[in-house]
Give the backbone structure.
Amino acid sequence: MFNDAAKHQWEKFISQIKPKKILEIGSYEGASTCYLIQKLAQENSIEIHCIDAWNIEMGDDTDYKHYGSNIDMSAVESRFRQNTKLAIEKVSKKVDFFIHKGFSDDQLVKLLSNDKKNYFDFIYIDGSHLGPDVLCDAVLSFRLLKINGVMAFDDYLWPSANKSLTRVPKLAIDSFVNLYSEKINIFNAPLYQIYIKKISD
């Protein structure tokens, strides 16, 4: 959960990088989205894009099993929309807010086709926890990230119930970091989350 695993890390660097164009993959109820809105939009106008399917029917190892098998994802989506609406109402600067409902691979390709290559200052990847999905999100997001932009990966040490390396983010994140090693710098490594800075295309 964002407040447990990430918030204290974000306090250390979000104020330093001050992103104005943000992409979030995996929004759930909007805890990280609301944090970014409240943290950044008191001083500057921001643009934030959120991708989530809000769909419990995602296969036999769906991410949302972590939260419980009988979860009502339509209620989760409603809470996301209400939480972000309230957050936007509380800040003094303009928030251009875009919700992209659907699976991340489709939505990321649409953003690329809509001239968003090298567009975002900060991208947060916290969607599917299956290795192939995480790798796909990383590769497509890298194209959307500006030079000197920051990409954050959540759940680096996410445990697998069946001990399969392909059903957790770690192998995908490690593969991405190694394959793109000449194009990135490790920005921070607090273990549960990994941050990289894009230094070239």
